[in-house]
Amino acid sequence: MCFSEDGCDISVDGNNRFVEKNETRMYFDDDSLMYGAIFSDPVVYECQLDRLMARTEKLSQIYLSKISLISSTGCESDLDSDLVYLREFANGFDDSRDLISAISKIENIGNRNEDAHCKLW
Predict the structure, then answer these.
(1) Which of 7, 49, 70, 111 has the fewest CB atoms lying closer than 10 Å?
(2) pLDDT of residue 10
């Protein structure tokens, strides 16, 4: 495993956020995903990201339902369009190349929820 040299079995590019292994690039966002990419088979890594995106899709739907519920009590949330976008994005997730886009969208929704009057979580 190498973090900066060519010709390694496993190469980690921290600047571009990918691990190259078995001639396959697996993208990551944080240390836990980086280690997951290093120690798992590329097929397993991508499968686990698919599972995470499926969970993201389901959670988006749950929070959209919660928006409907709390709006009936007079508490409004403006996250519905972002959650619809995230749900559709997660549904169409292809592979780890899409990860950075997903993470930035999720972080944006989390920050907006923190600032909201009616928090969803």
Answers:
(1) 7
(2) 92
